[in-house]
Specification:
The protein is mainly alpha-helical. The protein is built from six helices and two strands. It has helices spanning 6-30, 34-60, 63-66, 78-84, 93-116, 121-148, and strands at residues 2-5, 69-74. Strands 1-2 form a two-stranded antiparallel sheet. Helix 1 (6-30) runs antiparallel to helix 2 (34-60). The longest helix has 28 residues, at 121-148.
């Protein structure tokens, strides 16, 4: 996918988060383990919340930041990739966490790449803040997932 404006990028990332939630829902119906199902439910909710927060950010962000133009920001067909992904019914918690981190890091890298090619300090700073927040959320999600092993 070719992205031209920051608004497009953020809207696309929000759609990708929704697609991740749908992937986890699909995997939930295929999973054999109740612990894996619990983890997938948690990830579904997390991705829906992340997408909603990103949409709220888009609504509240300064127009001049959102209207920033980019040249040559190209990204894989993340949504198509999510729609094709499968895991066996025997998937375990590590499989699910590994898949989540791979997808999550792909979206974080897109934001980092865009931040590094931003022309203004304001836009770069806004994207770096989003990346920082997302990395903190990711860290918390991993810790929560590990704590689920203790249940």
């Amino acid at each position: 996918m070719r992205i031209q404006q920051l608004r497009e990028l953020l809207e696309y990332v929000a759609k990708c988060r929704i697609e991740m939630a749908q992937l986890y829902s699909r995997l939930h119906s295929q999973a054999d383990s109740s612990r894996v199902k619990l983890m997938l439910e948690y990830f579904q909710q997390h991705e829906r919340n992340t997408a909603e927060k990103l949409e709220n950010y888009i609504d509240d962000a300064p127009k001049k930041v959102l209207d920033t133009w980019y040249k040559d920001i190209v990204f894989e067909d993340f949504i198509g990739h999510c729609q094709k992904l499968t895991l066996p019914g025997s998937m375990n918690e590590d499989d699910v966490l590994e898949l989540h981190l791979k997808l999550d890091n792909s979206l974080i890298e897109l934001l980092e790449k865009t931040a590094s090619s931003s022309a203004t300090a304001e836009t770069k700073g806004a994207l770096e803040d989003l990346v920082r927040v997302k990395k903190i959320q990711q860290q918390r999600l991993v810790h929560s997932s590990i704590r689920m092993d203790d249940i």
